[in-house]
Design a protein that fits this description.
Layout lengths: L4 E6 L3 H12 L3 E6 L2 H11 L3 E5 L7 H9 L6 E6 L3 H9 L4 E5 L3 H17 L6 E9 L2 E4 L4 E4 L2 E3 L3 H12 L4 E3 H9 L7 H15 L9 E4 L3 E4 L3 E8 L7
Parallel strand pairs: 1-2, 1-3, 3-4, 4-5
Antiparallel strand pairs: 6-7, 6-13, 7-8, 8-9, 10-12, 11-12
Helix pairs in contact: 6-8
Bound molecules: calcium ion.
Length: 249
């Protein structure tokens, strides 16, 4: 039996809401629509959706407020929709616990990729930090080997420093999803680190030089301007495991 995943589309603009719902319905999901924040909150409790697509600009309520309320009781995956110019808003949404975002205007492929990624992560990862990954992650000619702590390009070991490896490994663990600068820094260097994106930028530049054919036009490690980084979506071979110590590496 194939159970269709229910996706609640919270969006006040009718044309966009219909566009998103039509794509979801014709790709194996069941779309529900809410036009206001109040309606959305009541539908979340009554319909128990599997995923939420949340427009941040709603008539009666700030989308961020819905997210804040939702995160006080639920880890339901949320993909935020926002205008191109609102980078600060996207970062706030991600830091409040949104899983990813779409920038208007977006296309069918992008929408489906974000939905797939958010659902996959909810299935495989049950917590944020207590997951140790094993096996390999492959995208294009790149493979992350979590057992050997190596990144391979076309089968050849890329000589990464420990920090560089940890960044790639973290992005691989969340592949397809954008990670904010702040999230990466805190995961790598602890909760009190932060504020200094420069170290991360230098590391990323080094990784790109080692991995990308043309670092100016990356195929694997994408910069989301003003927000963070995203690793291209690929295939996970292996498993996600809860480690007893809660350490990722
Ligand atoms: Ca709107």
């Amino acid at each position: 039996m194939n159970i269709r995943e229910k996706i609640l589309v919270i969006e006040d603009e009718k044309s966009i809401s219909h566009f998103i719902s039509a794509i979801l319905n014709s790709n194996g999901y069941e779309a529900l629509q809410a036009r206001t924040g109040a309606e959305a909150l009541s539908m979340i409790s009554s319909h128990c959706p599997d995923l939420i697509i949340l427009d941040l600009g709603l008539p009666d309520m700030d989308g961020l407020e819905i997210l804040r309320q939702l995160r006080s009781w639920s880890s339901l995956p949320v993909v935020v929709v926002s205008a191109r110019s609102h980078e600060r808003e996207k970062v706030t949404a991600l830091d409040l616990g949104a899983d990813d975002y779409l920038t208007k205007p977006f296309g069918t492929d992008e929408l489906l990729a974000r939905v797939r990624t958010a659902i996959r992560h909810t299935r495989t990862a049950s917590g944020n930090d207590e997951i140790a990954q094993q096996g390999t992650y492959t995208v294009g000619e790149m493979t992350i080997d979590y057992n050997k702590h190596q990144v391979l390009m076309r089968g050849e070991n890329v000589r990464l420093t420990l920090s560089e490896f940890r960044i790639v490994a973290l992005l691989g663990k969340h592949a397809g999803k954008v990670l904010t600068y702040d999230f990466i820094i805190k995961e790598l260097w602890g909760p009190r680190a932060g504020g200094n994106n420069q170290i991360l930028r230098v590391n990323m530049a080094n990784i790109r030089r080692k991995i990308e054919k043309n670092p100016a036009e990356p195929e694997y490690l994408f910069t989301e301007v003003g927000v963070g980084y995203r690793l291209a979506e690929g295939e996970l071979n292996g498993r996600l495991q809860i480690s007893e110590k809660g350490n990722l590496f």
